[in-house]
Amino acid sequence: MHVAIPLYDRFTALDAVGPYQVLAFAPGCTVTFVAGQPGPVSDDRGTLSITATASYEDVSAPDVIVVPGGIGTLDALSDEALVGWIRQAHEHTRWTTSVCSGSLLLGAAGLLTGEKATSHWAILDFLPRYGAEPVSERVVTAGKVVTAAGVSAGIDMALTLLALASDVETAQSVQLAIEYDPQPPFNAGSPKTAPEGLTERALSLIT
After folding, report:
1. For 12-70, what is each residue's pLDDT tens digit?
2. 2-182 carries CATH number 3.40.1550.20
3. Domain assignments of the chain as residue spans, ordered by start
4. Dihedral sign computed on CA atoms, order 161, 117, 139, 153
5. CA-CA distance, 103 to 97, in Å (whole number)?
6. DSSP letter (8 states) at residue 195
7. Residue in 100, 109, 117, 132 annotated catalytic
8. pTM, to two decimals
9. Contact call for residues 206 and 122 (beta carbons, < 8 A)
10. Does 29 participate in catalysis according to the annotation?
């Protein structure tokens, strides 16, 4: 199974690396980072780069796409090379997926019309612009399209995807291998549970 993860300027690192870590462990799975041109692409903190080893043209028909989100997503929506690649590659994929605001790129490619989808809580309201029905869930599967909520949800999505593409035992084995056993120190990972006033502070970190 060949997985392609497209990178664009100011993507969120964990959106890409979380699913990469899960899927790269899976037997028979190859993961390639792609971009408009091969080379390093900077994340949304500006201090980390991941090297795309192939161009969109080099990987035109992957089995799986994982589209990360990030501060740069809104600018990337007008990148027809990226959006066009997502649209074209989707015709060949077994699964087309996104993490966080990457779902907006799926929407821009016309893949979410009439479908349920999720994203980071701060931009769920953007999804109806693309004909999608926003759902406040960790992972949403609609046919062969799988969307994940914000950042860390990409790991959950990749494990869900691995169970669908292979089997539950394989996904569980990978989960154990990476010791994915979340026990956060605070119950503040959702606007529904975060202390009053924390939402505005959190938004200031990501805008």
Report:
1. 999 999 999 999 999 999 999 999 999 999 999 999 999 999 999 999 999 999 999 99
2. no
3. 2-182
4. positive
5. 8
6. P
7. 100
8. 0.97
9. yes
10. no
